[in-house]
Amino acid sequence: MGKRVLLIEDEPNIIEAIRFILSREGWRVDTHSDGTTAFDRVTAVRPDIVILDVMLPGRSGFDILRDIRADAGLNGLPVLMLTAKGQVKDREMAERVGASRFMAKPFSNTEVLASVRELTGA
Amino acid sequence: MPRSALTGTRIRERRALLGMRQADLARLAGISPSYLNLIEHNRRRIGGRLLVELARHLGVEASALTEGAGAALIETLREAAAVQEGGSAEIDRIEELAGRFPGWAALLAARHRRVRELERTVEMLTDRMTHDPFLSASLHEVISAVTAIRSTAAILAETEDIDPDWRRRFHRNLSDDSRRLAEGAQALVAYLDEGAEDPGTQSSPQEEVEAFLKAREYHLPELEDARPADPADMVAASQELTSAPARELALGFLVRYRRDAERMPLAEFAAAAREEGLDPGRLAARFGVDPAAAFRRLAALPAALAGGPVGLAMCDGSGTLTFRKPVEGFALPRFGAACPLWPLYQALARPMAPLRAVVEPGGPMPPRFLTYALCQPALAAGFDGPQVLEAAMLILPAETVAIPESPAQPIGTSCRICPRRSCVARREPSILADGF
Q1: Does the record carry Transcription as a key word (chain B) (predicted)?
Q2: Closest residue of B to A106, CA-based?
């Protein structure tokens, strides 16, 4: 255990809930709420998985994901995308940009946990 | 074109429709065939008893021969045929349809108008769903709150050994998020309610403003006085302006009208307009205003003061018509794009270059119009700001001013209903059966 997850999300209560459920499972949870500096945080933290919200202040989650996929040093980093709009076009966009998985809000806690486990092989 | 079709032409068409020979009709009406031939070719005026007599033998009302079916009705039917993909309507027999089956023709036209209204409503609602920032933000807020509540509630329900501090914290979060959810949902409901009552879905805001101005013949005495009415009060008191966007558009128009009226007082301007032969350039120089203001002011003159009707069309940089005051014989399309050969658009391509041109819309006996056109940048955001262009075209019929004897530039209304087959500016084929 002791794996690291970076949660990039701007809703404090959602952050709190996800942090709680993942911490209980033994994850070390870092959080970040600002879109403009999120990518720098990814390269600094080097997490095992990123949970990335689409709607962020400053910069869209899709743009951040594009940067992650363009960075050779982050090759193969699993990214679980969250969005408040369960729309087909968002899902397609997430797939095109290279999201490992896509989850529409409101999600269930067990779904999040299961996805994180599967994506990291934990 | 129906509006220029003449009594003689209608007599000839009606007679041909009945399969009656010219000589037979002439005999029935008690005139010589050669005289009837002159009448049918619009070379002799006809009226009074002879007209009534001919109408009787042709089985129609005399007024159907003099006025034809309403030009507006025919225009609407033509438009209905134009929007029908692969339609097989007998375009060349529209007038016959309207004349023989006025009830059905009116019904068809009314159905067509209703379809356009509904199409516009659908467009507006689609736009609102996809682009409305308020709706999008509200939904995001609601979904975020629901997500936090669902996640937090599951933690509280499923975690048996939860620490009391955490429990208190999650309870507080739940309470905050549920309040947020309630507020978000209320805002959403209020917003959608408001949208449902928006009567602007009946017609476009621009059409409402046009109906308002048309009812007043584009002249507003309330704003001409030394102590003018408040434009906001006029808008509020109007019956034609029902939707909020239309009221906003109208208010902008009225404020501008008042400013023009202050700079160019009615009596003085009317006298000057006659002296200058309605030349907006000279009038602008005389009153120290920009030419577009003189265009607007001329269009606001009552016909009695201007010497006859004055038409005006204005468009923005995209070519969209933003103001329409039509004159008889020069149709301004209600939907879709107009004729690219209009001096209005020629002016748009050359900002600040004044244009004065004689034009001639299509038709068997086309009237000629003198037009003045000019395009100016609004500079509303200063020299650095985005350049917003506004072009205006003044349309003066022969009734109002003497038309110069220079060759007229052929123009149309809109390609789909324009008879000029081989026009170089054509962007799509005409639906008219054959050109003139």
Answers
A1: yes
A2: B147
Helical segments of B197-279, H only? 205-215, 231-237, 244-263, 266-275
Same domain, B148 and B53: no
What's the CA gap between B124 and B199, in Å, rounded?
12
* pLDDT tens, residue order, chain B (436 aa): 333 357 888 888 888 878 889 999 999 999 999 999 988 888 888 878 888 889 889 887 777 777 665 767 877 888 888 877 777 788 888 888 887 888 888 899 888 888 888 887 787 777 666 666 667 777 888 888 999 999 999 999 988 888 899 999 999 999 999 998 988 888 778 777 765 544 444 467 888 898 899 889 999 999 998 888 899 999 988 888 888 888 999 999 999 999 999 999 999 999 999 999 999 999 999 999 999 999 999 999 999 999 999 999 999 999 888 899 988 888 888 766 789 999 999 999 999 999 999 999 876 667 899 999 999 998 777 888 888 999 999 999 988 998 998 889 999 888 877 778 888 998 887 765 443 3
Do B149 and B55 belong together in one domain? no
Structural domain boundaries enclosing B357: 308-436
Q: Which residues of A56-75 are buried (b: 16+ CB within 10 A; e: fewer)?
A: beeeebbbbbeebeeeeebe
Q: Which of B138, B143, B160, B173 to mutate to test binding with chain A, by most A CBs within 10 Å of its CB?
A: B143
- B327 and B411 both lie in a single domain: yes
Residues from chain A contacting residue B170 (CB–CB below 8 Å): 16-17, 20
Q: What is the CATH number for B29?
A: 1.10.260.40
Contact B372/B394 with Cβ under 8 angstroms? yes
ipTM value, please give it: 0.89
Contact A13 B176 (CB under 8 A): yes
Domain assignment present for B98: no
Nearest Cα of chain A lies from the Cα of B184 at a distance, in angstroms, of 14
Is B83 a member of any domain?
Answer: no
In total, how many domains does chain B have? 3
**Residue B410: which residues within 8 A CB-CB, separation 6 or more?**
B341, B359, B360, B362, B420, B423
Q: Cβ of B152 and A108 within 8 Å?
A: no
Domains of chain A plus CATH, in order, are 4-120 (3.40.50.2300)
Q: B180 — contact with chain A (CB < 8 Å)?
A: no
pTM of this prediction exceeds 0.95: no
- Same-domain check for residues B14 and B137: no
